[in-house]
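note to self: dont lose this again. the chain is below, predicted strucutre after it. 377 aa total, dont forget to put it in the shared folder this time
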Amino acid sequence: MLQVDLETHLNTFHLSLSFSAEPGKTTVLLGESGSGKTTVLRVLAGLLHPQHGRISLDETLYFDSKMRIVVPPQQRPFGYVFQDYVLFPHLSVFENVAFGLRAQHLSRSLIRQRVGEALDQVHLNGFDQRRPMQLSGGQQQRVAIARALALQPVLLLLDEPLSALDVQTRREVRHELRHILAEVGITTILVTHQYLEALVFGQQILVLDAGKVVQRGEQRDLLTYPRSSYVAELIGINFFRGHLVRQETNALYAIQLQNGAQSVEIIAALKEHLPTEKVPTIGEDAYVIVDPRSITLYQNPPESSARNVFRGEIVQMLRLGLSPLHDDERVRVSILLNESMPPLTAEITETSAARMQLHDGKIIYASFKATEASVYT
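---
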């Protein structure tokens, strides 16, 4: 079991997090650029030293600020695959994979054995005499992974392993890499800013924002209970923070999204809680999500029974094209309700947008039923 507890300052950036990773499984660090993902990898690898913290794997300490234990990078049995692979163009596949082994002054026979085993693990038998320029992007990635595996690491660190690939190759390699990691069975920490990759690879997903873990869990947790605007944007739903101000019925609550004169209130249905979870209390912080397809737009104040009706200005219209599930093209319309809040986004048909003559700057009304909005704490 990998146990990590870190706190450090890098100029104005503050990294503070704790997590554990189960043996033989892949933990994904998901977050946008600057959230601290690569910094965590560099600290784990020993390339950066945190000011405070502790790193242990299978009861072996690699860093402990209190005990002043700092194991140097070359003595940590960790494999690190960099974002751009860092292959030596003038060396063959064999020599690239053998590079770290030669630095350990191993015998020729043992190096040949280790390289052969590593290339077999990544399904590159017969490629040992090729140069990186003779390989596809996906094959280069596998060489970089083989180089890490040849060192027989107990922990594998992957920094954005698919980012250097084009869209089509990324799709193919994603499936391939998932199988390699499953077959190898090494505890792996994988960094990505791609939500789909987090879902594909992560048995545990940690969402990082400004150096802190803002959400952790499995794929279902992120899909059902997003706790950051970053995750909600990746999923494609409206996400708001606020606090509970009153209970309307057993299942419906009123949530105030902003304090002060420009406060906005949403009536939403309580998401189903586990029996062990406590009942929400008034004043408690809460999250609200709304599917853009559940929102109806009007040119004039609507006479519908919907509990949530808002007036705002269109700030963006994004045409999504023809959906496989619909006969008409779809349009995402973002409406600014309040200067201090993220826009509310509705998804409607191109026909509806044309009929209402929607455009940036137009004032529009948006409504959705209380049962179409979900609140959770």
